[in-house]
Amino acid sequence: MKNISVTSSFTVFDSVDELASEVKDLMVQAVAVRKKAYAPYSKFRVGAAILLDNGKVVLGSNQENAAYPSGLCAERVAIFHAGAIYPEAKILKMVISATADSKETTEPIPPCGACRQSMAEYEIRQEVPIEIYFMGAVGKVFKSDSLKNLLPLMFDKNFL
Hints:
alpha+beta, 6 strands
């Protein structure tokens, strides 16, 4: 028997103001679309903005449903839309902002496991890392240089 160690590395920005202008603009768009999320059940709103290598920006917000499993997270709304409309484009960056209606979230909120797995499919397929930035409503922003930091032991097509 042996132990293995898996580590992840993130860059932490104290606020949106420290981000490069391109990323800051994407975060502004993610916050705006977050406010339009359909979240009548959880009262937890998430917005995502994706920058593609063709210069297009694709937005998504969480879309809930009374039959809970039928809803979809903001990250998957955006990534699936990008894949459907721009199937040849590579995803360069994804930025995410999340908060609850009942309180302003000040801690960075990472993508859920299902979103991480969906994002992994695109990162593996395009053979280019996706930069991922995530935050709450305000405060620190975490940056991951690749989905591999968020899902280091990912399941992919090589297992099939």
